[in-house]
Amino acid sequence: MIRTQEIAYRDGDTVCKAFLAFDDSVPTPLPAVLISHMVGGRETFVEEKAQELARQGFVGFALDMYGENRRAQSIEDGRALMRPFLEDRLLLRGRILAALTAVRAVPEVDANRIAALGFCFGGLCVLDLARSGADVRGVVSMHGLLQGHTLDKQPIRAKVLVLHGHEDPLAPIEDVRAFQDEMSSAQADWQMHIYGGTMHAFTNPKASNPASGLMYSAIAERRAWAALLDFLSEVLR
Length: 237
Hints:
Layout: E1 2-11, E2 14-23, E3 30-36, H1 44-55, E4 59-62, H2 75-87, H3 89-104, E5 109-119, H4 121-131, E6 138-142, E7 159-165, H5 173-185, E8 190-195, E9 208-209, E10 214-215, H6 218-236
Parallel strand pairs: 3-4, 3-5, 5-6, 6-7, 7-8
Antiparallel strand pairs: 1-2, 2-4, 9-10
Helix pairs in contact: 2-3, 3-4
């Protein structure tokens, strides 16, 4: 049976609220997957992903980047919540490292077998987790933002998988090339899957605005999820 609960943790004075899911019929400790949300906050979308991963034998930990489980009421609201983290990547790093500390403290989690998955804004967050030199087995960005940062470079210990739509206007070819160069220069173990004819937010069934480059793709979602599970099997088993 999949058990779920909310877990509070802190980043300094900010109280964050994560969504935890795991199969309580499976012997613990289990490998865990941190899940970093889209611009809207810790919405049902990532909570459902945590439960899907729990059914695969992992602990799903949908983290809270904004604190107090704040959720955007509009696109503009979401951009306002996200903006401080884009402008201060040290703040972003600290917030996701706090989530990593929190998931390691969960009794059902094997602290030595942790990976991270992020969607859109969350993809940037998990890539910055890897860039921080954090001791995680792997990170996966699904239609994530790819911009680098100017913080001190740390050795990238995590394996990196990027699942990207070729027609994604939020991660244009210039960002793709710069990211590839960055990973190669860091001698990271990285790979990128690029889905042709695919826009941003391709795993989100609610995405239906092709004029803005946001469009769900059932085929790309299926391929990306299969790639994710194969990657997790490699890095966490």
